[in-house]
Amino acid sequence: MDTKPIVKLQNITKVIGKKKIIDDLSLDLFAGQITGFLGPNGAGKTTTIRMMTGLMRPTSGEVFIDGQAISTNFEESMSKVGVIVENPEMYKFMSGYKNLLHFARMNKNVTKDRIDEVIAQVGLQNRIHEKVSTYSLGMRQRLGLAQALLHRPKFLILDEPTNGLDPAGIREFRMYLRKIATEEGVSIFVSSHLLAEIELMCDRIAVIQNGKLISIKEVNGEQESYYYAEVSPKEQAHAFFESKDMKVENFEKGFVIPLETEAVPALITEMVTSNLQIFSFSLHKKTLEDQFLEMTGGGQIAESHKK
Ligand SMILES: Nc1ncnc2c1ncn2[C@@H]1O[C@H](COP(=O)(O)OP(=O)(O)OP(=O)(O)O)[C@@H](O)[C@H]1O
């Protein structure tokens, strides 16, 4: 992977009125990588995206696109950016092809070959000469993707891209995004509330809360895990864990126990010899949602254990 970032957010702060909406945010995005941008409502995602697309100026800090600062080289840096909005503006009475031709005219550098190339990249070859009004939502989203790719951006921003798509449509869209990141070396930035979707679509997840970047995580398929045990009597079990200095979480019916697998048999043996009754002892994987809620303080892990 090229180590020079395509996008560099450097100590970005945005103050509106008296409110600090973005607080010293720094983030690097790389070629061929899909980064998810996740945060609770009002965290500052839209504000950050507006600054990355030159629609808003940071109060302090700088955004660089492919090495060019937006504040001093606006046109050149923006020529490297492609944006897909939630509902791409399309002429429904025209064919997909004519829509692309229309957008291509706005940019002298877009050739007919390039139009054909992006059509193939989003898999619309068979329907491209039909009117957009006959397209499914998924096809319209893909046409929006094709439009955003026409000028060969190095950086593509998608704000809530799969809104309204059914699971099959989401899966399909994800596949095309992955293909584009790999084939064109585009750095893709996806803002979404759909945690599971982000987890499947992205290589990395940046989490924002109260205008601050609180975490960047690689998505590598390895999930953190924990054990959950239902043990009785509960007070005695609690004292047992405390005596062993174990940081367990106490739920109504059981305990969440951070534990290495190798340590499980010895712990169970000790619990039994301490006259604790074990009704269940099971391994759980932390979902991205668990981790997200933990990070943002929106709740503890294992909400389901509260039942
Ligand atoms: N022009 C503005 N004037 C005052 N406050 C603003 C302005 N724009 C945004 N804010 C505030 O800044 C905070 C961040 O807003 P932003 O829209 O960036 O969040 P978000 O993460 O995109 O949220 P959501 O997921 O709800 O769209 C919010 O508290 C919002 O009310």
UniProtKB/TrEMBL annotation:
It holds the Pfam family ABC_tran. Keywords: ATP-binding, Nucleotide-binding, Transport. Gene3D superfamilies: P-loop containing nucleotide triphosphate hydrolases. GO terms for molecular function: ATP binding; ATP hydrolysis activity. SMART domains: AAA. Residues 7-235 form the ABC transporter domain. InterPro entries: AAA+_ATPase, ABC_transporter-like_ATP-bd, ABC_transporter-like_CS, P-loop_NTPase. Belongs to the ABC transporter superfamily. This is ABC transporter ATP-binding protein.
